[in-house]
Every structure is written in structure tokens, then in C-alpha cells.
Amino acid sequence: MPDDRPKIPAALKRELLVEAGHRCAIPTCRQATPLQFDHIEDWAKVRKHEFANMIVLCANCHARKTAGDIDRKSMHLYKANLSVLNNRYGDLEKRVLDLFAASPEAGFIELQGGLDLHLWYLLKDGLLQKINRGGGNIVIMGIPALETYQLTARGREFVSKWMSARPVDGAELELDEY
């Protein structure tokens, strides 16, 4: 029987790519090319293209999902966690989380001064804290040239959950059915 599946609409592809940041949605991968669109619940079962049931994967992670190395429950969690991250945190905040995910041993990050507004939700949610490392910081118009931020214990737990496909705060799902 030929695959009579219609093409994925361009607008849906765009939404999915934007959601995943034009990268593989698996947080431990984040490969940028080549990317593929996958149905979390198989096309053969659902027979429709819907944002809630689709995710962007690199070719390697898509093959791993197809082979059963990455299960549907994990895919649903990756999708839910993307939603939390994208709806709660800005670009710089996500990059800071990516940095700590890629370098779990990192104790702190130094950024140019005056970025608290861009890191607002990480600070407000208690995932990141500003620390004073002492030294002779240069201050320009009352703003330190460099400021140091540290991932809190809660932040480390958040990154660990995100990396291991466990629900991050706000992404709790009823997963018994998967």
C-alpha cells in the first residue's frame, strides 16, 4: 500500500522549527542539520499532521526513535518541556541553560553587566543567582562591566530533568497512557 500521507503544511513546519529553535528537539543532541519532522504517535495511527503530535528531530535521533531507542513517553516529555522553555524563558536564558547542560561541571558564568532583565525568569524562578566573586570589577555608570551568575541547586535539578526527559516545572503530564 503506497504512503498516501499528505505533505506537512509549510506553516506547520515553520511552527515546529521555531519551537525547536531550528535544531533537534532532543536536548542532549541539539543537532542543527539535517532535520526531519516526526509524529510522536505514529502517522499510521493518527493519520493527520498536528502541532501537538509532531516534533523536530535530526536524522540520527529520528532513526533512534523509529528503532525504539527513544520511546514515545520521552518524546511527549521533550515536546512538553520545549513548550515550558519556549513560553517561559527568553533566548539568553535558554542559552545559559544550554551552557550549563553542556558543561555540568561549570560552577558559574560571567556575562556583561546589566543583563538581569534578560535573565529575569531564571533569577525569579530560583534557577540562577547572581554571586559576588570579589575582585576589582570595573563599573560603568553604576553597572559592573562583568557580573557572575551561578546555577542554583534548583537550577541544576531543572537542567538534569530537562536533559533526561523528565517533566520540568510546568510540564507535568499524565503519562500512564503512553
Order of helices and strands: HEHEHHHEHEEEEH
How many H/I helices?
Answer: 7
Q: What structural class is derived from the secondary structure elements? A: alpha+beta
The main β sheet shows up as: 3 strands, antiparallel
Fold topology:
Elements: H1 10-19, E1 35-39, H2 43-46, E2 54-58, H3 59-67, H4 72-88, H5 91-102, E3 109-112, H6 120-124, E4 128-131, E5 139-140, E6 143-144, E7 146-151, H7 153-163
Antiparallel strand pairs: 1-2, 3-7, 4-7, 5-6
What does this structure look like?
The protein is α+β, with helices and mostly antiparallel strands and 178 residues long. The protein is built from 7 helices and 7 strands, in the order αβαβαααβαββββα. The strands form 3 sheets. The chain has a 3-stranded antiparallel beta sheet with strand order 3-7-4. It has a two-stranded antiparallel ribbon with strand order 1-2. α5 crosses α7. The longest helix is centred in the middle third of the chain and has 17 residues, at 72-88. Mean pLDDT is 87; it is low at 171-178.
